[in-house]
Design brief:
2 helices, 4 strands, NE1680-like_sf, DUF2024
């Protein structure tokens, strides 16, 4: 399965830096921002507390089995960096 990697960087008002990748297939590219927001919420980061963020397309690659399973079940996969 070919996937697309979106490199995501977030700085909160309190100075916390969070770096992660959002991995999606062709069908879910338009949902990348929503997946990033959901992930941040799962970490307890409120969108209102974000000072600066970016989520940019980085590259495409073949997905390993774990990422394929995550995308099949959730529509995306997250890798914390």
């Amino acid at each position: 399965m070919q996937i697309h990697v979106f490199d995501t960087h977030v700085m909160t008002d309190s100075g916390q830096y969070i770096h992660f990748d959002v991995l999606v297939n062709n069908e879910n590219i338009k949902e990348v921002e929503q997946y990033a927001k959901q992930y941040l919420a799962s970490l307890g980061v409120k969108i209102d507390n974000i000072k600066q963020s970016r989520c940019n397309f980085c590259h495409s690659e073949l997905a390993d089995l774990e990422v394929q399973d995550n995308i099949a079940n959730q529509g995306h996969s997250i890798i914390r960096l």
